[in-house]
Amino acid sequence: MNEAELKRRTKAFSLRTLKLVDSLPDTRSGRILGNQLGRSGTSVGANYRAACRSRSTAEMISKLSIVEEEADESGFWLELLEEHGLRTQKQVAELKQESDELTAIMVASRRTLQKRSAQSKIKNPKSRIQT
């Protein structure tokens, strides 16, 4: 999956999350869980875009870590919606799967970057010297 496809995918996840949030009941629990899910779900797309504009490998690793965290957190809020009874397993299944997949993609991407960065430092030991 390339950068453009992943940008579209994370944006679609954000939009689908907002649609689910809009469908929640206007109860105290619905508002609390909806606010949390809305924040973490939209953060996935926004922070992935920021990662794509990173100025360094270290910055990209940091941003991907945030996307990973927010995608995983979205999965948590989706689980709570289901377990609380605000939505059924069927109603959250696709979004939960997407949050799991996006989390896994970000973990793999971050690890690959970390490995490449470490290998680069081994091949170029002078690049670690601060002046």
Can you describe this structure?
The protein has 131 residues and is mainly alpha-helical. It has helices spanning 3-22, 28-52, 57-84, 89-123. It starts with a helix and ends in an 8-residue tail after the last helix.
List keywords for this structure.
mainly alpha; de novo design (two linked rop proteins); 4 helices; 131 residues; 82% helix; elongated
Summarize, please:
The chain has 131 residues and is an all-alpha fold.
Strand and helix map with partners:
Layout: H1 3-22, H2 28-52, H3 57-84, H4 89-123
Mind telling me the C-alpha Rg?
17 Å
- Helical proportion? over 70%
Number of domains in the coordinates?
A: 1
In terms of DSSP E residues, the strand content is under 5%
